[in-house]
Design brief:
The protein is an all-alpha fold. Helix content is 66%, strand content 2%. Helix 7 (131-142) crosses helix 9.
Length: 204
Amino acid sequence: MDTNLRHRIRAGDHDAFGELFDAYARSVYNHAFRLTGNWAQAEDIVSLTFLDAWRLRGTVDEEGGPLRPWLLGIATNVTRNTRRAARRHAAAVSRLPPAEAERDFADEVAARLDDTAELALVQTALTTLRRAEREVLALCVWSGLDYRAAAEALGVPVGTVRSRLSRARAKLAKHVKSAELPAGDGQMKGDRGSAVGPLREDKR
């Protein structure tokens, strides 16, 4: 089934892309949200990811398993590009004359979460990580990819994934300990993270 879908994707079959979206849009959205911490940005990244997937359909290998790692790799790159564009925009705006204060939607975004305190904790902890460490954490811990699949998504060796994940976990553990949190608040259990899980993922 996966091989057949790959052939159809490479051939530009629109129905195949519809199936791809139905199968993995939720997973891409969750991954984007965990990298950005922003609902609206995550929704934009989903759209851009599937646009890029269509553009890059010819790069799909003819043989292989589920296309989820491929899509999450594209989503990771889209997130990087989105952040770079946001930084350039912020720099340009900072050079403009002061304008009237704009409405802050942060409270409305946070209100959609079951536990806003937990999200704030996790976002604060994630600021201690480098971008590459956040990406590996999001892929391996929250999206559930194994080391090989995460390496495929990021285009790096498996050993690099292992070392980045190890550093990320060590930094988060140090942050959680320094915050003196009760057991279970935002801490990882095994290979899964209890924090920032807006939607249940189907890891097909």
